């Protein structure tokens, strides 16, 4: 039973980690491993029958407190969770500040979708520790394994650490699990939360992962090995993306470092575009490129095209949701928060960068990224007045291309 194997691994690692932290100052590492093992061995399994005659398992350990609310859904014995992979696996890859939170919200609002937000954040932390820029993610095998674990709701020993991720609080599907792990509970209750997380993930018809830390060429493994896998490649005007990154991430200065950053970003973007085109030709109907601006200007058709690509039904609840987040009456301060998906006017929000970026830095970005504009469907900026005008900088992508 692989689910129980994953659960046991998860719990042992959690117990050992917790104990190790407590005794780290005394350097009693051996004690932490021994205690974790003894606690694991002391776990009992209590069986009882419910009114329908099914048998359920409750993991317990002596002297635990009352069960966490997430353990209220019992798990059938024999097969701990529903069997088989989800019918559809979706990966949305993009870059920071490119509209991925907005696009993910549109997809994840469908009731069949189990959504994981930025599972590769843990990899980024490793990259930062090694003093490399976040967009230089060369950890292909590790990144691919983590994505695969969340798409299949199945975790191997080497994947377990990815469950301890602060970004899980940003998805309704994983938020309860995140809260449970942060709670000061006994390790056995964390295990119960993990089992509930697995069961919920596997019971959904679609698993959906969003990441800004993945390369298009890495998706080929999924397309080749998972016939139910589909890739969404989201882009935004590079000038808007980079200006927003400089203001929100604050990892570079927009005025003095824009040349190096825009050169690096558009080199990665060009490579990803080339790979996405290649994969689209190799796997027809399973790779789709989308632009954030289309979602901001026409969110209904944007969502409709995505849902048609994924084979999801666009129901009335989703349509109401689109209306609520793109033409909201919420407080202005709320809608202008960096990661807010709720906008009073999504088109105005899309163009806000134009009033702060400045022509000098935009011109540098045009010089470094302009060779991609015809393929992506963006226009050059001619002057500061043009930048701040109401002239649309969104153009039709070149015919027959990835975005056509």
Main beta-sheet strand count, sense and barrel state: 5 strands, parallel
Give helix % range: 40-55%
Over the alpha carbons, how many angstroms does the gyration radius reach? 23 Å
How many angstroms separate the termini? Answer: 46 Å
Mean pLDDT: 80
Principal-axes shape call:
globular
How many DSSP E strands?
8
SSE-based structural type: alpha/beta
H-E order: HHEEEEHEHHHHEHEHHEHHHHHHHH
Beta content comes to 5-15%
Number of helices: 18
Strand order of the largest sheet: 5-6-4-7-8
Low-confidence spans: 18-83
Write the topology of this structure.
Elements: H1 2-22, H2 29-41, E1 44-49, E2 55-60, E3 75-76, E4 88-93, H3 100-108, E5 113-117, H4 121-129, H5 140-152, H6 175-182, H7 187-203, E6 206-211, H8 220-225, E7 229-235, H9 238-248, H10 258-282, E8 287-291, H11 292-297, H12 299-310, H13 316-326, H14 332-335, H15 346-350, H16 359-369, H17 373-376, H18 384-387
Parallel strand pairs: 4-6, 4-7, 5-6, 7-8
Antiparallel strand pairs: 1-2, 2-3
């Amino acid at each position: 039973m692989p689910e129980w194997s994953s659960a046991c691994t998860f719990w042992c690692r959690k117990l050992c980690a917790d104990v190790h932290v407590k005794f780290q100052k005394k350097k009693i590492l051996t004690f932490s491993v021994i205690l974790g093992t003894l606690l694991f061995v002391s776990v009992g399994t209590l069986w009882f029958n419910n009114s329908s005659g099914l048998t359920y398992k409750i993991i317990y350990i002596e002297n635990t407190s009352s069960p966490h609310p997430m353990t209220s859904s019992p798990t059938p014995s024999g097969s701990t969770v529903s069997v088989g992979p989800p019918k559809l696996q979706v990966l949305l890859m993009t870059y920071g500040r490119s509209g991925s939170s907005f696009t993910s919200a549109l997809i994840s609002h469908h009731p069949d979708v189990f959504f994981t937000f930025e599972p590769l954040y843990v990899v980024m932390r490793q990259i930062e520790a090694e003093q490399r820029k976040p967009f230089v993610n060369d950890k292909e095998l590790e990144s691919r394994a983590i994505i695969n674990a969340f798409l299949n709701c199945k975790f191997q020993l080497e994947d377990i650490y990815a469950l301890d991720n602060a970004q899980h609080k940003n998805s309704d599907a994983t938020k309860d699990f995140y809260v449970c792990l942060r709670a000061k509970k006994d390790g056995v209750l964390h295990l119960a939360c993990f089992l509930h997380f697995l069961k919920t993930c596997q019971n959904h018809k679609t698993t959906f992962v969003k990441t800004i830390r993945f390369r298009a060429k890495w998706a080929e493994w999924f397309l080749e090995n998972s016939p139910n896998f589909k890739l969404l490649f989201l882009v935004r005007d590079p000038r808007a993306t980079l200006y927003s990154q400089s203001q929100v991430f604050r990892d570079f200065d927009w005025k003095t470092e824009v040349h190096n950053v825009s050169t690096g970003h558009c080199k990665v973007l060009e490579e990803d575009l080339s790979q996405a085109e290649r994969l689209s030709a190799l796997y027809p109907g399973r790779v789709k490129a989308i632009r954030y601006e289309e979602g901001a200007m026409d969110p209904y058709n944007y969502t409709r095209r995505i849902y048609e690509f994924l084979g999801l039904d666009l129901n009335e609840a989703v349509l109401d949701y689109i209306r609520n987040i793109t033409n909201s009456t919420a407080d202005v301060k709320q809608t202008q928060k960096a990661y807010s998906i709720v906008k009073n006017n999504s088109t105005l929000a899309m163009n806000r960068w134009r009033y702060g970026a400045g022509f000098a830095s935009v011109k540098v970005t045009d010089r470094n990224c302009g060779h991609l504009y015809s393929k992506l469907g963006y226009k050059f900026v001619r002057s500061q007045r043009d930048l701040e005008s109401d002239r649309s900088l969104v153009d039709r992508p070149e015919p027959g291309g990835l975005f056509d």
